[in-house]
Design goal:
α2 packs across α5 and α3 crosses α4. With 176 residues, this protein is mainly alpha-helical. A hairpin with a 2-residue loop joins β3 and β4. It has a two-stranded antiparallel sheet.
Length: 176
């Protein structure tokens, strides 16, 4: 993707749409471009997750990351954190348990509660996939100037920490 630098520049997005910078991209058009490009980013992330580990979907990777970061939690906590339906989390948890990446343990503070925690295999796979993702990001961004990287990082943080629109589920996660 090429960034517009002057009034005669043309921007070509990853979706192939062209906009003339001289015409001035209005807020509506900019928001549409952002939405389209973020959708392309999400599709690429889902596709690359499967290549990095065939048994580990992007959702599974994200859930494992949260379990590692939190030191373990209940399935209902995962559902609430990611604004997912409990049945969706239950299916993901079942797959992760079947593959030996997580296990249920009794909560020492409340014996009625089961806490999900990473197994050794889960910790190892998560570390491998995390490193592969870091390498992929470094390669993709290798020719970006440092100031562009810092600005892009700041924009992503700003976007992801902004309050959700009224009625929309919260989407900020530090591990996805």
């Amino acid at each position: 993707m090429k960034a517009a630098e002057g009034p005669d520049e043309t921007v070509v997005t990853t979706a192939g749409a062209r906009t003339d910078a001289a015409a001035g991209v209005g807020t509506g058009a900019a928001v549409e471009t952002i939405q389209r490009e973020m959708t392309a980013f999400a599709r690429r992330a889902r596709a690359s997750a499967g290549r990095m580990h065939p048994e580990l979907s992007l959702v599974s990777y994200t859930l494992l990351g949260h379990l590692e970061e939190s030191g373990g939690c209940r399935a209902t906590d995962l559902a609430a954190h990611y604004a997912l339906d409990k049945s969706t989390v239950s299916r993901q948890v079942a797959v992760l348990e079947r593959t030996g990446l997580i296990e249920r343990r009794i909560d020492p503070d409340d014996h009625r509660v089961q806490v999900l925690q990473l197994t050794e295999a889960g910790t190892r796979i998560l570390a491998q996939v995390t490193e592969s993702r870091k390498v992929a990001f470094r390669e993709r961004l290798a020719d970006w100037p440092a100031e562009d990287l810092e600005r892009f990082a700041a924009y992503l943080v700003r976007y992801n920490t902004a309050p959700a629109a009224p009625g929309a589920p919260a989407t900020r996660t530090s591990d996805s």
